[in-house]
Amino acid sequence: MFSKYLNSSSVRRQFSLIKSLIVPINMMSNLTMNIACNGKYAIIIFLSILLSFFVIMDIHLYYSLQSTTLVGQKRIGNQYFSPFEPLSVKLLLTDPVNHYIFTPLAEYFDDVTQFSKVFYFITPNMISFTHLVLAFVAGKFVSSESLGHRRLGVVIYHFRNWLDDLDGVVYRSHSQTKGNYRSNKSNLGYYIDIYSDIIGGFALSFGILFYLWKCPPSRFNHNVLPLKSPEAIPQNPERQNGSPVRKSFPFNFLTGTERPSGGLTRKYIFWKVFCFGFTLIIAAGTWDKVVERYTYVFQNEFTDPKITALQTEALHSVWTWIIIWIWRGIEGQALLQMVLLSVFIDRVWEFFNVMQYLGICLVIILNIVSEIHIRQVCHMLGIK
């Protein structure tokens, strides 16, 4: 009788339904476990979400720019910070990570906690010196052989970047210019902040250099992300208990011919890091000049309505947006974000290989295009 019950069509349909529900659940469970256990997929998913967020925000930024001008924009009263209003040339040319993440976090932090008012004795220069110290701490961690320590260094440097935004927020609060994203070169704090950023970038670069000297890369390692789990990767004979053997740094690293286990001399490694550092300096320095010149062109108020109309037309042109958008991707802070990401995923050497000459070429070409565009707009507006 029981066998007849099991053989009934209704029971078979119920079992089939249950089975059809269990299979997708098992598949989702396995997928979740694979994502949780495999860092590569987790990083890919995170980066995909982050890039999608940046694209959506940039689209919103584009349409916000098309509906406004940059002349006389100010933050109204106790209005909370928005990455789309008020706009300025400096904010438009800021990299997406700072524009959409660090700057809003710093602004909201000050709005909610009233940090700049409660701790009024904390000056922007004090914050600048603090994030300079943190840059050296991050550089020390980044130079470690341990991937966990290097990732901690990346986190510390990101906190340093947030403090870099916070010192600007505190300055604007103390000077009663909230929402006015415009550099004040007549203030000593501007130069303290600039040189703190430069020295901090050097600290990070030297940290990466020391790591590459201690753990020389292989000439033939081209994987973007590890395709195997660490247990499946054969151990390098130059490693002891999974950790790289420390190598002393010769004082004649620029002229020495000592070839580490990876087959690359320290001179060659230094040249790779130097090329990136040089690109970083050129990108940061020229970005500041381009911001200054575009500010003069697009944030300068004209009394003639015809010139104002031409100014607005030039601001809303497709070429202006393309130049702005490319600058957002290769300015100094954007390059720092890229190298920090490469450190985090343990592929900094591959990043240096890609950016060694490509980076400086892009920066030079973009500067030339920007200069031509600025001169054309100035000629159109009748200004020098």
Task: Quickly describe the structure.
Helix content is 69%, strand content 1%.
Architecture overview:
The chain has 384 residues and is mainly α. A hairpin with a 2-residue loop joins strand 1 (239-240) and strand 2. The longest helix has 34 residues, at 348-381. Helix content is 69%, strand content 1%.
How do the helices and strands line up, and which of them pair or pack?
Blueprint: H1 2-6, H2 9-37, H3 39-66, H4 89-92, H5 96-113, H6 115-118, H7 124-142, H8 147-174, H9 188-214, E1 239-240, E2 243-244, H10 266-298, H11 305-315, H12 318-330, H13 332-344, H14 348-381
Antiparallel strand pairs: 1-2
Helix pairs in contact: 2-3, 5-8, 7-8, 7-9, 8-13, 9-10, 10-13, 10-14, 12-14, 13-14
Shape: globular
Note poorly predicted spans.
Answer: 222-233, 235-261
Which sequence of SSEs, written as H and E, runs from N to C?
Answer: HHHHHHHHHEEHHHHH
The number of helical segments is: 14
Protein structure class: mainly alpha
Strand element count? 2
Order of strands, widest sheet:
1-2
State Rg: 26 Å
The CA-CA distance between the termini, in Å, is 100 Å
Mean pLDDT: 81
Helix content: 55-70%
Q: Describe the largest sheet.
A: 2 strands, antiparallel
Strand content: under 5%
